[in-house]
Design a protein that fits this description.
463 residues, Rossmann fold, 3 domains, ten-stranded mixed sheet, six-stranded mixed sheet
């Protein structure tokens, strides 16, 4: 059933490896694990070792910690690379020289999606990992046993992937470089559309066009689940020929009503087709998380799931790692870590954090990629309202080279120009030293970013 038609029959016959460049990433490591479970021989490379790589090595995966042409030999049957790895990569050059097929990750995943009778993909600029996690709970609590690929670590499945035995595949659908257009989606979700990835999109209209193609790719008998209050999604709905159903707070086909909130939970009822379904609760806060939960409830209603199981799933739901994750306390100061790396996400995060304390919030922010920092510079500078002070770090390069010559100073100056206090820390240790005389019981240290800033949380907790 799995990827047998491309080159893989030959790979099995010749006892060759599938080589993954960037194997230490969340998505690629999940693919590697699925391949290993299916009996394929897997090798790979990355620029640094991490827990995901160690886990794969323990399963017998051969991994080199460098990108080197010597990693490619004729024992490899196909090379798979991430969107962040271009054809200037030495391993890809060597594979082409040896006439070894090269395919990018999204194309490889696209072949995977074709092999499942029900492929559910979660798209949107924000909230994909959290929503895919909620769907995981709902599907597993209804005994569907899906295969799952998540862009984060979820305790429910013990990591970032789960290998199921059913015909259901659940995965995130990322819009970066239009990757999600390779997927064969049966039930698709669009959470929101926002300006991002302007290194590979011309403008917001270009982004909308990509989401429009994603919706059009869903077959006539498939479903598009979408947020009713997102006006940009509304602009593309006419192009989708599949069945459509919306959700929202005070709007949409599936409508959250009778909402009550506490410091750590949201209770609500749902109105659908003139019938009220009562008694839903999620033990997370923030309207964005309520919307994420509503998308999963909508999915449950169109597939006629047992709502008792759905309510239990939502009640038990716990956020994935690095999503509003309570890392610990230091002298009565809470340390919370979050993956937010876009202005919209940061604003929602700070609003959510305000509801937890009457004290001060210190935000430790590591910008993610030069292109995003540059193209959203104004938006970033205005996203820290309500914070006592921003402690800013160097931009995390990720996949990029700094061809724009933008640095932390550009963002720092912009932030200060709004009247917000901002301090530059040259290292995580420098930030810990800077905060020794700052913060008091009841305050919150908010550690924010999609890079390696997670290391700072541990330093604060272990001081």
């Amino acid at each position: 059933m799995f990827l047998r038609d491309m080159f893989l029959d030959r790979i099995i016959k010749n006892n060759q490896y599938i080589h993954l460049i960037g194997i230490g990433g969340v998505s690629m490591s999940g693919i590697a694990s699925i391949l290993l479970d299916r009996g394929f021989k897997v090798s790979g490379s990355d620029i640094c070792k991490n827990p995901l790589i160690i886990n794969l090595e323990n399963k017998g995966c051969k991994i080199k910690i460098e990108h080197n042409s010597k990693n490619i030999d004729n024992n490899i049957g196909i090379v798979v690379h991430t969107a962040a790895v271009g054809y200037e990569n030495n391993e890809i050059k060597e594979a082409i020289k040896r006439k070894i097929p090269v395919i990018n990750r999204s194309e490889f995943l696209g072949e995977l999606t074709k092999k499942y009778n029900k492929c559910i993909t979660i798209s949107g600029t924000h909230g994909k990992t959290t929503t895919t996690s909620i769907f995981s709970y709902v599907m597993m609590y209804n005994n569907l046993d899906p295969t799952i690929l998540i862009g984060g670590e979820l305790d429910l499945i013990g990591g970032n992937f789960k290998i199921g035995k059913s015909d259901y595949l659940l995965m995130e659908a990322c819009e970066y470089k239009k990757s999600f257009l390779n997927f064969s989606t049966d039930i698709g979700v669009i959470l929101n559309i926002d300006k991002d990835h302007l290194d590979c999109y011309e403008d917001l209209d270009d982004i909308k066009d990509a989401f429009c193609e994603y919706a059009k790719n869903i077959p006539y008998d498939g479903w598009l689940i979408y947020c009713a209050s997102d006006k940009l999604i509304g602009d593309i709905l006419d192009e989708a020929k599949c069945k459509k159903v919306s959700y929202g707070i005070g709007c949409g086909d599936v409508n959250a009503i009778n909402i009550s909130k506490t410091r750590d939970s949201i209770c609500f009822d749902v109105l659908y087709k003139e019938k009220i379904y009562d008694g839903f609760r999620i033990n997370v806060i923030g309207n964005h998380n309520l919307l994420n939960a509503l998308s999963a409830i909508t999915f449950s209603l169109i597939l006629d799931f047992d709502l008792i199981n759905v309510k239990k799933a939502l009640l038990d739901f716990s956020l994935p790692k690095r999503r509003f994750e309570m890392k610990g306390e230091r002298d009565g100061i809470k340390i919370i870590e979050d993956y937010a790396h876009h202005p919209t996400e940061i604003k929602a995060l700070i609003d959510m954090t305000k509801s937890l304390t009457n004290g001060k919030i210190y935000c430790f922010f590591q910008p993610h990629t030069y292109s995003r920092t540059l193209t959203l510079l104004d938006e970033f500078s205005k996203s820290f309202d309500g914070v006592e002070e921003v402690i800013l770090f160097d931009i995390y390069a990720a996949r990029e080279k700094n061809i724009w010559n933008i640095t932390f100073k550009d963002l720092k100056d912009k932030i200060i120009s709004t009247g917000q206090k901002c301090h530059y820390a040259k290292s995580f240790d420098d930030a810990v030293d800077y905060m020794k005389c700052k913060g008091e019981r009841g305050d919150i240290f908010l550690v924010v970013g999609a890079g390696n800033i997670c290391e700072l949380s541990d330093k604060f907790v272990n001081v």
